[in-house]
Amino acid sequence: MVMADKINCLIVEDDLIQREVILGYVKRIPDLHVVASCSSALEANTYLSSSSVSLLFSDIEMEDISGL
Question: Residue 55: helix, strand or coil by DSSP?
Fold first, then answer.
């Protein structure tokens, strides 16, 4: 689902607490809409294979694959 006039974003962070912190900050910005929150780069890759986002918040150091 695409939200009109909002920027769709994805959060990729392996630490649950940090994901929740980022989500809390993003929710304070009315122009942003979180479409998904992933715990790994592999999960994010799966999501992105069928959907697109305009903004990505990503951890750089994750266990499976780098956030870069």
Answer: strand
Distances (CA, A) of 6 to 2, 16, 22, 35: 8, 25, 17, 11
* pLDDT > 90? residue 59: no
**Distances from the Cα of 51 to the Cα of 8, 17, 18, angstroms:** 10, 25, 23
3-class state of residue 36 by DSSP = strand
pLDDT digits (tens, 9 = 90+) for 14-57: 999 999 999 999 999 999 999 999 999 899 999 999 999 999 99
- In order of 6, 8, 46, 49, 63, the CA distances from 27 in angstroms are 12, 12, 24, 25, 27
